[in-house]
Amino acid sequence: MSPRNLHVVNLPVNMDRTCLVFHLVVILCLLRTSIARTKTITTDQSALRALKSHVTFDPSDVLSRSWIYQIPVCNWTGVKCSSLHQRVVALNISHLGLQGNIPPQVANLSFLNSIDISGNDFQGNLPEELVHLQRLSYINFSFNKFSGGVPSWLGFLPNLQYLYLANNSFTGILPSSLFNASKLEDMRIPYSQLEGIIAEEIGNLGNLKILDLQDNELMGSIPRTLFNISSLQVITLTNNSLSGTLPMNICTKLPKLQGIYLSRNLLSGQILSRFKNCTELQSLLLSMNNFSGQIPREVGNLTMLSRLRCGYNMFEGAVPPGIGNLLNLEVLHMAFCLLNGPVPAEFGNLQKLRTLDLTMNFLSGPIPKSIFNISTLTNISFTLNNLSGSIPPNIDQQLPNLEGLLLGGNKLSGVVLDSISNLTKLSQLELGQNQFTGSIPTSLGSLRFLEYLNIQRNHFTSDSPSEFSFLTSLTKCRNLRFLSISENPLSGELPPTIGNFSSSFQNFYAILCGIKGNIPHEIGNLSSLLLLSLGNNSFTGPLPDTLKGLSNLQGLDLQDNRISGSIPNHLCTLRHLAIVQLSRNQFSGQVPDCFGNITSLRELYLYSNRLNSTFPASLGRLKDLLYLEISSNSFIGDIPPEVGNLKAALDIDLAENEFSGNIPTTLGGLQNLISLTLAHNELQGPIPETFSNLLSLQLLDLSNNNFTGEISTSLESLLQLKYFNVSFNELQGRIPLNGSFANFTYESFMSNKALCGGPPSLHFPPCTVHSPHGSKKKRLRLVAYTLIPSALMIILITILLAILKKRRKRANTSEVELFPTILHERVSYRELQQATNDFSESNLIAIGGYGSVYKGVLEDGAPFAVKVFSLQSEGGFKSFEAECEVLRNLRHRNLVKVISSCSNPDFKALILDYMPNGSLEEWLHSYDCSLDFLQRLDIMIDVASALDYLHHGYSSPVVHCDLKPGNVLLDEDMTGHLSDFGISKLLGGGEITAQTKTLATIGYIAPEYGFEGVVSTRCDLYSFGILLMETFTRKRPTDEMFGEDCGLKDWVMDALQNSATHFIDSNLITLRDENSNKKVQCALSVMELALRCSAESPEQRLDARGALNELRKIKVVFLADSI
User: Fold this and answer.
1) In angstroms, rounded to a whole number, what is the distance separating the alpha carbons of residues 835 and 377?
2) Which of 104, 397, 721, 895 lies in the 20 to 30 Å Cα band around 478?
3) Is residue 447 part of a domain?
4) Based on the domain organization, do 117 and 35 belong to the same domain?
5) In the annotation, is 962 catalytic?
């Protein structure tokens, strides 16, 4: 309405004044509204055009065609206006593939109550100005690339009810201000990178119905206040790192709860009585946590339940029969729960059940027949239990919808009838490791959806051994990816029809099947095959040339057959090969030189053949090869030095060949090597001194060769060596006494030329000491003529140096440089003041018992650390003197490097390398820091290397005396450096112990140090053992959970004795981690080592070198299992 269209109102003279005033007010309002509407719709248009201008990509040109001046704003695509004010109240431009960011002008859409831009590619931070959209009740920014923190201003939108921020790149914590949005009913921020805890203030959301924070990095316990929100219907916190226990009787205050999703967390405790009042609950998902105890029978009272998932926990006891009362149940997942007893027959009542998974328990007895009457079932898994009985003959009629039947690893028997082939929807059939008999039905070929078939380790036979007709029939299954028929007495020949499998076929196992004849040429048609395993059969003839067609092959296992001819060059064209197993055949000729080009190769087994060439030096190019076993052939010539390039190798076996010449010294560089076997060859010369570098070696067999010379005592450093054999050689001289040699038997050294000495248990003759020729008088004269002048010269030089040093000290008493400088020749007090902002608190890194550490930056920008000693106490002076004395000449990559010093009567400081990643203490015990398994292992190896140097690599052993996480500093590469030698001790003059009154940190002190003040290198080993435990458990030895009766060491020892693993830091090992078993085993090895290091008696503790070797071995095993 415009002003010119308003009508003049003629009022009677006698009209009441009140009426007149009213009409005037109405007229003025109409005028104001008309003018305001024109202004504000323009504002909305400008805001939307600003949004359009920030869209950098519009794949469908929706905005460029629709959002134009010629079209009214309210008619633009995705725009909705109110009928009253003609203002934009809703914006929906979802799923248009738009790219760009959100400008602050969007905040001018002041009437907006709904915005949906989900399913696009917007990025950047959300502008703070959006807080002005006070009418907003619905926000959907899901499936974009927004970053930064979740905006805190969202909590200041008073009308917000629905908030969807799923699948973005938000980081940081959930702001507690968000929980001020008291009208919020539905909040979903899953699939982001949120971290930290969920604040207790979440309990302020009194109207919340749905909470979804799954797939983030949240930690800590679930706040109890969350369980006070009576309106809650769904809680989804799946796949975080939440810990702690659940409250009792959850649904007492959550009567409307319909779904609780807590899988893939670190929650613990018993679930007994937690959910007994949840009568509305439909979904209960608790899988992959650390819940324990029995599954309560009250679970049968949750009659609305449709999904129950509690697998991968540590339950005990039987499966509650009351579950049979859950008549609405569709999914029941209780795999890996350690349950025992029978499968309840009451399960047959679950006539809506679609998925039943009881994998990996200890269930026994027959599978109840009633289960096979649940016609709705699509997936059944009883794999890895102790179930018996047979498959019912009419299974096809009872389970017409079955897609997966997984019964492997039980004690089932009987025959597999053709009726199973009538399960037309079947895609997975697992019957392996049972006691089935009879022939394999050829009718299996009618299962056109079949993808996975495993019938290994049964007693199946083929109905036509000469043709393998069942195998031919399976080629009709065009979706088949995996087939294992291993360990069945099938006999017969592999048919040419093997080549008819589809391009989906990837894995074929036929081990120990009694198959004979040639490998058919047609096998080369299987171009998608990843693994071919035909070992332990009776194949003959050469390898077919067509194998080169297996271009994706990663594993080839043909061991224990009678295959002959040469190893074909065309295998080298298979660029993805990781494992080649051709042992125990009749191959002859040479190893193709081109094998050195298969850089993906990890394992090569060619032992027990008739190969008769020289060793191909090209194999030295296989830098990632772990296992090389070519024993029991007829290889000749020298072992090429290139074998020393196999730096990753764990096992090399060249035994029982005809190698000659000397052992290449390069083999001493294989520091990961665990086993080396060179027995039964024609090798000669000495045992290389470089073998003393093989610190991980556990087995060394050099027997039955022609080695000469002595057994070097340097081999005593091989502390991991468990088996050593040099028998039947030409060795002579003294047998080493120490290290592992104290445990070897006579058989290790028998039949040599002239060995002597060694441990008495070997019964070798004692070694004769021969006197040198010539008179004693002549020798004394020679000593006098040569040594006396040299001694006089040394004394003269020493006196001159002392005089020069004294003069220099007098000339400069204010600043004395105690260390060779690296960055600068001299660092003055004034320079330190400037570099540390006058030792300001902002530069303070750490405060210790005898001083403080500051970060300094030189003029050229180079950072360094300054350790300023507190001179108010005698301890500060002594600490400075101790560090100067110890660090004056020490140089090692795992010690914090001292650059220089600054010293005058009133100020003493050391200038150190700056460690940008702080201390191990911070990384272990801060919520915002995290170290993975390998990082922790590497840091411990670094510390052990430093101790090995301090104890064994310096002229006088150095005892650190205060080993703890705070004294392990980390550089930019996360390499560990040992620091703080303020209370360390030098053991001089052959000392092995010393006395001290200085106490180290409580919890890490060795018993003899704490009670008697006795210091030795073994004290450091005790502290190192405690450090190992703390690093992998994240429990301080002073943790409040420990007391006088049970400390950290007792706790770990107790757990190991009970085969428990709960003590390992939960951040390292989760059930969803595919490497969890490997990590557990390596962590247990670390804990066993820690206990050996921290033995009560110093004599029983390992030394630093032994601990270092043990850790390196654990790392090798860890990395080997990762391949």
Assistant:
1) 73
2) 397
3) no
4) yes
5) yes
Confirm if 984 and 956 have CB atoms less than 8 A apart: no
Mark whether 5 and 105 lie in a shared domain: yes
- Give me the number of domains the chain comprises: 3
Q: What does the pLDDT read at residue 778?
A: 41
Report the alpha-carbon distance of residue 189 to residue 217 in Å, rounded: 12
Q: 1098 and 1016: one domain?
A: yes
Higher pLDDT, residue 297 or 494: 494
Bridge partners of 62, per DSSP, are: none
Residue 292 pLDDT > 50, yes or no? yes
Q: Are residues 949 and 996 in the same domain?
A: yes
pLDDT of residue 5: 41
Residues 6+ apart with CB under 8 A from 705: 678, 679, 680, 681, 682, 683, 684, 728, 729
C-alpha dist (Å) from residue 542 to 439, 562, 634, 1016: 30, 9, 19, 65
Task: Output the average pLDDT for the chain.
Answer: 85
Q: Of 102, 122, 149, which residue constitutes the final position of a domain?
A: 149
Inside any domain, residue 168: no
- Within-domain flag for 938: yes
Asked which of 149, 165, 186 is the last residue of a domain, the reply is 149
CATH number for the domain harbouring residue 1100: 1.10.510.10
Q: Which of 330, 284, 344 is nearest to 308 (CA)?
A: 284
Do residue 940 and residue 881 come from a single domain?
no
Residue 736 lies in a domain: no
What pLDDT band is residue 1060 in, cutting at 50, 70 and 90?
low
Spell out the residues 6+ positions from residue 700 whose beta carbon is closer than 8 angstroms to its own: 676, 677, 691, 694, 718, 721, 723, 724, 725
Domain holding 79: CATH number? 3.80.10.10
Residue with tokens 């983030």: 216
Structure tokens at 631: 């024993």
Same domain, 65 and 104: yes
Question: The domain spanning residue 844 has which CATH number?
Answer: 3.30.200.20
Which comes out higher in pLDDT, residue 822 or 227? Answer: 227
- Side chain identity at residue 562, one-letter code: R
In this structure, are 927 and 908 located in the same domain?
A: no
Do 962 and 905 have their domain in common? no
CA-to-CA distance for 161 and 171, rounded, in angstroms? 23
Whether 583 contacts 561, CB under 8 Å = no
Place of tokens 């299992």: 1121
Among candidates 723, 730, 722, which has minimal Cα distance to 750? Answer: 730
Q: What CA dihedral angle connects 264, 267, 273 and 278, to 10 degrees?
A: -40
The predicted model gives 294-317 an average pLDDT of 91
90-120 pLDDT, tens digit per residue, is 999 999 999 999 999 999 999 999 999 999 9
Mean local confidence (pLDDT), 243-252: 91
Domain range enclosing 73: 1-149
Nearest-10 crossing angle of helices 1017-1033, 933-952: 180
What is the Cα–Cα distance from 109 to 81, expressed in whole angstroms?
A: 11
Mean pLDDT lowest for which of 72-76, 396-400, 548-552?
A: 396-400
Q: Is the dihedral of CA 321, 322, 327, 333 positive or negative?
A: negative
Token look-up 């010119």 returns 4
| Assigned token pair, 438 | 């009879």
Q: Which residues contact 1097 (CB under 8 A, 6 or more apart)?
A: none
Residue found under tokens 């007829």: 634
Whole-angstrom Cα Rg for the chain: 39
Does the model's pTM come out above 0.90?
no
**Which one of 212, 215, 396, 962 is the catalytic residue?**
962
Q: How far apart are CA 576 and CA 600, in angstroms?
A: 6
User: Can you give the length of the chain in residues?
Assistant: 1123
Query: Which among 659, 660, 738, 744 is positioned nearest to 700, based on CA atoms?
Result: 744
Structure tokens belonging to residue 421: 């082939």
CA 151 to centroid of chain Cα atoms: 32
8 A C-beta contact, residue 548 and residue 524: yes
End-to-end CA distance of the chain: 78
